[in-house]
């Protein structure tokens, strides 16, 4: 009678985690296609409205690893509820925002919800039997990936039918109910990592992330050789070195640098950096490409809704691949799936470079991108989870997500600079700019595929005697295998 109850509890837990991660991921991309609508409605400039994205990116980059670490310390379920509540509050503020300033502040609050990624992976590791951890992590990763694609697809129809504020009202209802469900159904964390928050390290981490991501996000508007960009990048370097020194000397590091040096961690993070660079750039510029009016000599003149529908093959492929990744990993291994996902991205970017004149070519290339994302997201998460002790799952997966975001910001900025370097007299980018941009993406994707080859295949040491071992209530015969890896 006990086991069915525990299975039901796991199903509820998984549904809660899936809803939380899916809607946070969707909010990352839901706004991108409708920035011109928001700019017009709130009577602001193009430069200012981009802060709706920048503020969200900066906030999530700070809170994702920090709250992941706090969750490892005080309880993942508790911090999951906090993160979801913050996400819901941010949605409410954004839905009623009377000005661009309030909307930007609301997006900062929403960024706190980024912690749902590491907390969800940590809860899965704590609560699920070892035989199901890989498939559950892969499924959540698929939902994360599909959420980003779904945002691009749904933005147009929602805005056309209900208005852009419903991009926040709908997530508010779902995320609010998810927070209540998390409090009610997600079990308390059985594994805690004693310690305290190193506030100096937290401030330094926040400082170098902001100083790095801000000029990358605003470089095109500020000018890449301007004093603001170069000064911010120099400051980021100084703060990064200071943070590394502070963490190395701390008895209670926010992020254990020894963990970050583990072969399975640093190699996977390198792939995440490069893969993020190619993936986010495709998210940003492929919809833009198909919306270019045919009068420019290329493009399809698609509306926001039509552009979203052209991205549908990408969405379907990434979701199906992510769901299948768990079973595929059991047979081929996470490293093989990561490499395969990166190779799919290489082919997709190469295809866009030489063949982008018809809708079916865009659909096939988008499907390859989605296939690669579905495989890569699942395998990256599993490689990180399998490489670190249970007590460091939250901070390790949080940093992996963060590094992927940093790569995305860098990749999008680089490709944006290439595409817009030599515009037409009308102000629209030239087709050659997009072609060169897709070629750059091919190079980044190829580098990610090569980096995937150096990721360790993983190993399966015994459970006994390892630090961060499960609590007695989880000491079951089923809990063997990957979950035992303690990342020595």
From TrEMBL:
<keyword id="KW-0813">Transport</keyword>
<feature type="transmembrane region" description="Helical">
    <location>
        <begin position="166"/>
        <end position="185"/>
    </location>
</feature>
<protein>
    <submittedName>
        <fullName>Major Facilitator Superfamily protein</fullName>
    </submittedName>
</protein>
<keyword id="KW-1003">Cell membrane</keyword>
<keyword id="KW-1133">Transmembrane helix</keyword>
<feature type="transmembrane region" description="Helical">
    <location>
        <begin position="434"/>
        <end position="455"/>
    </location>
</feature>
<dbReference type="InterPro" id="IPR020846">
    <property type="entry name" value="MFS_dom"/>
</dbReference>
<feature type="transmembrane region" description="Helical">
    <location>
        <begin position="136"/>
        <end position="160"/>
    </location>
</feature>
<feature type="transmembrane region" description="Helical">
    <location>
        <begin position="104"/>
        <end position="124"/>
    </location>
</feature>
<dbReference type="GO" id="GO:0005886">
    <property type="term" value="C:plasma membrane"/>
</dbReference>
<feature type="transmembrane region" description="Helical">
    <location>
        <begin position="362"/>
        <end position="389"/>
    </location>
</feature>
<feature type="transmembrane region" description="Helical">
    <location>
        <begin position="197"/>
        <end position="217"/>
    </location>
</feature>
<feature type="transmembrane region" description="Helical">
    <location>
        <begin position="80"/>
        <end position="98"/>
    </location>
</feature>
<feature type="transmembrane region" description="Helical">
    <location>
        <begin position="298"/>
        <end position="324"/>
    </location>
</feature>
<feature type="transmembrane region" description="Helical">
    <location>
        <begin position="401"/>
        <end position="422"/>
    </location>
</feature>
<feature type="region of interest" description="Disordered">
    <location>
        <begin position="461"/>
        <end position="488"/>
    </location>
</feature>
<dbReference type="InterPro" id="IPR011701">
    <property type="entry name" value="MFS"/>
</dbReference>
<dbReference type="Pfam" id="PF07690">
    <property type="entry name" value="MFS_1"/>
</dbReference>
<feature type="domain" description="Major facilitator superfamily (MFS) profile">
    <location>
        <begin position="13"/>
        <end position="460"/>
    </location>
</feature>
<keyword id="KW-0812">Transmembrane</keyword>
<feature type="transmembrane region" description="Helical">
    <location>
        <begin position="336"/>
        <end position="356"/>
    </location>
</feature>
<dbReference type="GO" id="GO:0022857">
    <property type="term" value="F:transmembrane transporter activity"/>
</dbReference>
<feature type="transmembrane region" description="Helical">
    <location>
        <begin position="12"/>
        <end position="31"/>
    </location>
</feature>
<feature type="transmembrane region" description="Helical">
    <location>
        <begin position="229"/>
        <end position="246"/>
    </location>
</feature>
<keyword id="KW-0472">Membrane</keyword>
<feature type="transmembrane region" description="Helical">
    <location>
        <begin position="51"/>
        <end position="68"/>
    </location>
</feature>
<dbReference type="InterPro" id="IPR001958">
    <property type="entry name" value="Tet-R_TetA/multi-R_MdtG-like"/>
</dbReference>
<feature type="transmembrane region" description="Helical">
    <location>
        <begin position="266"/>
        <end position="286"/>
    </location>
</feature>
<feature type="compositionally biased region" description="Basic and acidic residues">
    <location>
        <begin position="466"/>
        <end position="477"/>
    </location>
</feature>
<dbReference type="InterPro" id="IPR036259">
    <property type="entry name" value="MFS_trans_sf"/>
</dbReference>
């Amino acid at each position: 009678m006990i086991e069915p109850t525990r299975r039901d509890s796991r199903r509820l837990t998984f549904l809660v985690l899936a809803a939380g991660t899916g809607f946070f991921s969707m909010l990352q991309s839901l706004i991108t296609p409708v920035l011109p609508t928001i700019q017009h409605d709130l009577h602001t400039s193009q430069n200012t409205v981009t802060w709706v994205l920048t503020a969200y990116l900066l906030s999530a980059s700070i809170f994702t690893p920090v709250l992941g670490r706090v969750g490892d310390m005080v309880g993942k379920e508790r911090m999951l509820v906090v993160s979801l509540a913050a996400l819901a509050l941010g949605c409410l503020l954004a839905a009623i925002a009377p000005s661009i300033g309030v909307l930007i502040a609301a997006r900062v609050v929403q960024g706190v919800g980024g912690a749902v990624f590491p907390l969800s992976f940590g809860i899965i590791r704590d609560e699920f039997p070892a035989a199901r951890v890989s498939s559950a992590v892969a499924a959540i990763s698929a939902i994360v990936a599909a959420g980003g694609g779904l945002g691009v697809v749904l933005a147009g129809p929602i805005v056309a039918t209900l208005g852009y504020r419903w991009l926040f009202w709908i997530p508010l209802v779902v995320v609010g109910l998810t927070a209540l469900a998390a409090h009610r159904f997600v079990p308390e964390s059985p594994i805690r990592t004693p310690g305290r928050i190193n506030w100096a390290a937290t401030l330094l981490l926040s400082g170098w992330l902001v100083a790095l991501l801000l000029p990358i996000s605003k470089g095109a508007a500020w000018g890449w050789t301007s004093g603001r960009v170069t000064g911010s990048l120099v400051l980021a370097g100084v703060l990064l070195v200071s943070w590394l020194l502070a963490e190395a000397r701390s008895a209670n590091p926010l992020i254990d640098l020894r963990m970050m040096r583990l072969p399975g961690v640093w190699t996977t993070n390198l792939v995440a950096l490069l893969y993020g660079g190619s993936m986010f750039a495709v998210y940003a510029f492929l919809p833009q490409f198909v919306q270019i009016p045919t009068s420019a000599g290329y493009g399809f003149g698609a509306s926001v809704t039509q552009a979203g529908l052209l991205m549908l093959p990408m969405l379907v492929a990434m979701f199906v691949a992510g769901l299948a990744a768990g079973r595929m990993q059991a047979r081929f291994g996470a490293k093989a799936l990561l490499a395969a996902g990166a190779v799919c991205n290489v082919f997709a970017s190469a295809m866009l470079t030489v063949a982008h004149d018809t809708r079916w070519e865009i659909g096939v290339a988008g499907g390859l991108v989605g296939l690669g994302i579905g495989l890569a997201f699942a395998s990256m998460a599993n490689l990180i989870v399998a490489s670190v002790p249970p007590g460091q799952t939250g901070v390790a997966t949080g940093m992996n997500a963060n590094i992927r975001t940093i790569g995305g910001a860098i990749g999008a900025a680089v490709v944006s600079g290439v595409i817009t370097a030599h515009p037409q007299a009308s102000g629209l980018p030239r087709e050659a700019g997009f072609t060169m941009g897709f070629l750059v993406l091919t190079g980044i994707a190829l580098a990610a595929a090569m980096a995937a080859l150096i990721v360790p295949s993983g190993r399966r040491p015994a459970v006994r005697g390892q630090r961060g071992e499960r609590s007695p209530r989880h000491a079951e015969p089923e809990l063997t295998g990957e979950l035992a890896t303690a990342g020595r």
